[in-house]
Amino acid sequence: MRDYSSDRIDLRSDTVTQPTPAMRDAMHHARVGDDVLGDDPTVTELEQRIAALCGKEAGLFVPSGTMSNAIALRTHTSPGDEIITAVNSHIYVYEGGGYAALCGASIALVNVEGGLMNAPDVEKAIRKQAGSLSHYPDGSLVCVENTSNRGGGACYPQATLDAIAAVAKANDCAVHMDGARIFNAVIATGVPLDRMVRDYDSISICLSKSLGAPIGSVLVGSKAFIARAHRWRKMFGGGMRQSGMIASAGLYALDHNIERLSDDHQRTMTLANAINSTDGFSVDMDTVETNMIYFHSETPASEVMGHLQSKGIDVMDIQPNTCRIVVHLHITDEDIAQIINVFSEM
Ligand SMILES: Cc1ncc(COP(=O)(O)O)c(C=O)c1O
Fold first, then answer.
1. Selecting from 2.40.50.100, 3.40.1280.10, 3.40.50.10540, 3.90.1150.10, what CATH number does the domain 9-18+260-344 have?
2. Given the CA of residue 64, which atom of ligand 1 is nearest to it?
3. From the CB of 315, is ligand 1 less than 6 Å away?
4. Domain boundary assignment for the chain
5. What is the 3-state secondary structure (H, E, C) of 166-233?
6. Is the C-beta atom of 62 inside 6 A of ligand 1?
7. Where residue 7 falls among pLDDT bands split at 50, 70, 90?
8. Taking the domain 31-256, which CATH number applies?
9. pLDDT at residue 1 above 70?
10. Cα(202) to centroid of ligand 1, in Å?
11. Which site in 136, 291, 294, 345 is 20 to 30 Å from 285, CA atoms measured?
């Protein structure tokens, strides 16, 4: 039984989830205050809890993952700096060029294999003004996305995360993690969150993706970093007043919606295997580790999407012959069986 008011099977994103009655109840009873004045106890609790889970000193609640990344980028860099990140990263592909408009920074793109960067390639992409007769920008920030959205939801091996952070540090770069779906990575790899991000200066974590909250992300880092980020949040218009109303949904999600991600991952794997063995479709199974499937089709993606739509199933066409499926907390075993059935008839 889906816990929202639609009979469609909506797999376009894990951002389509709606707060469940229990989550709405938590929101209804939230203690609130004016968070711009530092008075909202629920926001403070959420910031401190996520910071503690990451083993960091402080957190900052913001409306969206895009704003959280933008604040991190702006706090870490100065105009004329260069940010080093994956060619498929959300920061580069899907955030409106905010790195250029809001930070005055350029981007050095790193190729990916299996959706993920490796440390030697990151190191090669770091350029420094010093010693270049001022030809180069100053590479000052490395960004890693875990899980990797356009990488098929793949998780970085811990050794790679550590190695990338090490080359960043060795080259005087800060290192930021876009952890929009970091709890999916924690559940899939079994690596505790504080260990996973140990060597990272800042981490952006979304509550409104696979965790099922309606709004909100938390940026974490050192006290000094978050104090500077706080000013950028103000300038970007991200200071919110009685935001405990939505932070309470985030706290509810931390308590109830993390362990259950393994169910999403199992359903994703079942569906990915079925699609991959259907004639005319293929999935790069190596990247299927969490709640995403990018499937390739012989027929144009728009046609596949249209056919699925006519059967009550919504997916997103990403490229001419590729669609994305994201499994989330409203998707049941019965839904998975129904989707497999529709694929088998195509
Ligand atoms: C990896 C990643 N980072 C950041 C974001 C941005 O989050 P938001 O849509 O809350 O701005 C997304 C959104 O899907 C994402 O997938």
1. 3.90.1150.10
2. 10
3. no
4. 9-18+260-344, 31-256
5. HHHHHCCCEEEEEECCHHHHHHHHCCCHHHHCCCCCEEEEECCCCCCCCCCEEEEECHHHHHHHHHHH
6. no
7. confident
8. 3.40.640.10
9. no
10. 16
11. 345
